[in-house]
From TrEMBL:
This is ABC transporter ATP-binding protein. Residues 5-230 form the ABC transporter domain. It comes from Actinomadura alba. Keywords: ATP-binding, Nucleotide-binding, Transport. The keyword Cell membrane does not apply. One of its GO terms (molecular function) is ATP binding. PANTHER family: ABC TRANSPORTER ATP-BINDING PROTEIN ALBC-RELATED. The keyword Transport applies. PROSITE patterns: ABC_TRANSPORTER_2.
């Protein structure tokens, strides 16, 4: 099966600063992928590399089997809604659609018009006079009407209120199903990702910390609570992602493929938010197991 995105040792450096390092990913098609990480982690850099707006400094990346931005056919396969949902303030909604038709060979005008009508956007309204939510919907419409195989969205809902966010994500989900689209979207809002994503990438300090199908990730990560214990003494197949301790008790978030039989532990399920926060607070040195520290 063609991977929607395959990266091997991918890196990007701005001057002396590496914004993305040693990024290796293999994402199958047909997923809605959530890319999450703190400010400055390298999310926008990765998305820009994926749509061919930036060349890599190291390693390689293919998107839908081709080099990003490498040919007109490749450009037509990938839609990109950049951060801050870019639209032209002085152009009307109808003029945006005209521009979309002129720039994109696979433009689906009926889809664009139908969507604009359903959203209640007046074709004569200038983008500069639309609300943030309406502008985001216009940008999404332009991305969808291009009829891409992959749609990439960089923090598309960051500026929207909860209702507008929900409407936007619902529209995106419907389109992903109807058009059999693969989607990659970055967001800081874990609750939104929980609603729409079935694949997760956590990026911290320019490195991929974890990537995989959400269901599998949740099934292989567990919260262990029990008498205080040094995480370094856990079986080798239990990888400690985060640990906190009181005088008597330890709480660990571990990754393991195997069942946990140790009767001293109470094993609990984790949420997507637990998973993301654990990887976001993971020490940068991944080879060293966390030492026993007391948090009072
Ligand atoms: N054009 C540039 N020139 C120099 N440094 C850059 C440039 N673009 C990004 N960076 C740096 O690269 C790092 C990664 O930035 P990037 O925008 O990819 O992060 P991000 O995860 O998308 O952040 P945010 O969540 O704030 O949007 C940051 O340290 C940033 O300052």
């Amino acid at each position: 099966m063609t991977a929607v995105l395959r990266a091997e040792g991918l890196g990007k450096r701005y001057g002396k600063h590496w914004a993305l390092t040693d990024c290796t990913l293999d994402i199958p098609t047909g997923h809605v992928v959530g890319l999450v990480g703190p400010n400055g982690a390298g999310k926008t850099t990765l998305l820009n590399l994926a749509c061919g707006q930036l060349p890599p400094t190291a390693g390689g990346i293919t998107v839908l089997g081709g080099r990003p931005g490498g040919s007109p056919a490749q450009l037509a396969k990938v839609g990109y809604v950049a951060q801050d949902t870019p639209t032209y303030a002085g152009l009307s909604v109808a003029e945006h659609l005209k521009l979309g038709a002129r720039l994109n060979p696979g433009w689906d005008d009926a889809l664009a018009r139908h969507r604009i009508e359903r959203l209640g956007l007046r074709p004569s309204s200038r983008a500069g006079k639309l609300s943030g939510g309406q502008r985001a919907q216009l940008a999404l419409t332009l991305g969808l009407a291009k009829r891409p195989e992959l749609l990439i969205l960089d923090e598309p809902v960051a500026a929207l209120d909860p209702l507008a966010r929900r409407e936007f994500l619902q529209g995106l989900m419907e389109a992903a199903v109807e058009q059999q689209l693969s989607v990659v979207l970055s967001s800081h809002l874990v609750s939104d990702l929980e609603r729409v994503c079935d694949y997760l990438i956590v990026l911290v300090d320019s490195k991929v910390q974890v990537a995989g199908e959400l269901e599998k990730l949740l099934a292989t990560h567990h919260r262990l609570t029990g008498p205080r214990r040094d995480p370094a003494r856990l079986p080798a197949d239990q990888h400690v992602i985060s640990a906190s301790h009181t005088d008597r008790q330890s709480t660990l978030l571990v990754r393991t493929q195997a069942p946990i039989h140790d009767p001293a532990w109470t094993v609990g399920q984790i949420s997507l938010e637990d998973l993301v926060l654990a990887y976001m607070s993971k020490p940068a040195d991944t080879h060293r197991r966390p030492t026993l520290e007391v948090q009072r």
